[in-house]
Amino acid sequence: MKNYQGVVFFDLDGTLLNKQSQISSSNLNVLKQLAEKNYLTVIASGRSPIEIEEITKATAIHSYVSLNGQYVVVEGEILVNHRIDTAIIENVLAFAEELGHPVSCYTPKEYRINFIDEATKKLYKLDNAPLPEIDPFFYTKKEINMLYLFSEEIAHDALLMEQFNDQLTFYRDSPFSMAIVNKNRSKKAGIVELLEKLNLSDLNQTYAFGDGNNDISMFEVVRHAVAMGNANEHVKEAATFITHDHEADGIEYALKQLNVL
Questions:
Q1: Rounded to whole angstroms, what are the CA distances from 209 to 22, 58, 99, 162, 219?
Q2: Is 208 helix (H, G, I), strand (E, B) or coil?
Q3: Domain check: are 211 and 238 in the same one?
Q4: Using CA atoms, how far apart are residues 7 and 159, in angstroms rounded to an integer?
Q5: Listed range (185-189, 202-206, 217-221) with the worst mean pLDDT
Q6: Which of 67, 98, 179, 214 has its CA 20 to 30 A from that of 173?
């Protein structure tokens, strides 16, 4: 195993990415400097591996905690691969359809949706990503790692959580959507598994950058938890350091203040 100086985890949207869903030249330079200093850089995101790999193809990043901790890869090697039981998926799809909400099913390499509504269109526009193809029976043909439910009806969140409380964990990650994973899975759980498998659990130089509610859990397992200036107040309260906005070189500023760069 490589003897890393430290590990830095980055959320994507609202953190490493700008409003165009791209990595800025400043952040590209930061990633280059971290690699030169022998830091392992890891994406920690609710996004799928195929999206992460496309976004990071111009960088030295080959490690990620994806699909909210369900699928973990380090330097190209798969370390963690948690799937959702097919029967549970079928029940979620049926319950969500009663509420009028579409659900997409994610594998590491592809995703499909059972139908498309306005919330779906708004979310993928926000992410600057293409709409998924429609295939209501995709989950019967593939092993599914994460579900993604589209809804602007916040009041329905509690109904879903109550119905599947013993089986699944839900993350409201935008005004239009909720990620759904196995019970107690999270970015935190994926990071813990990564650090344990690489024997890095006692490493002091561990950092996490984030801006959303699903980033709070990963703050609990690193020594330095950095909230972006654009993060909500709950995220800032959970952080050990608050930096500038993601559009104002917040990552570079924090790493300099923390004496990493």
A1: 16, 20, 35, 31, 8
A2: strand
A3: yes
A4: 38
A5: 202-206
A6: 98
